[in-house]
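User: Quick sanity check before I run a bigger batch. Here is a single chain. Can you write out its predicted 3D structure?
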Amino acid sequence: MANLILDERDQKFVLFEMLEVDKLCEKPRYQEFSLELFDMILAEAQKLAVNEVFPTLVDGDREGCRLEDG
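Assistant: Done. Predicted structure follows.
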């Protein structure tokens, strides 16, 4: 998924090369996880970020934030 707000290659580098999540999958507690599952989770997180979160940023910048009753 190529877009301007995230770099999938950077995400995969951090997860798979720096953090070595494949070694986590070898632990008994996480044996049901796989690199394919991590890829699917990343793909869905990217869809959420691009389709749901990113479009709200403009409104948030325009309106700002305020504290009410708090």
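DSSP finds four helices and no strands in the chain.

User: Great, the batch can go ahead then.
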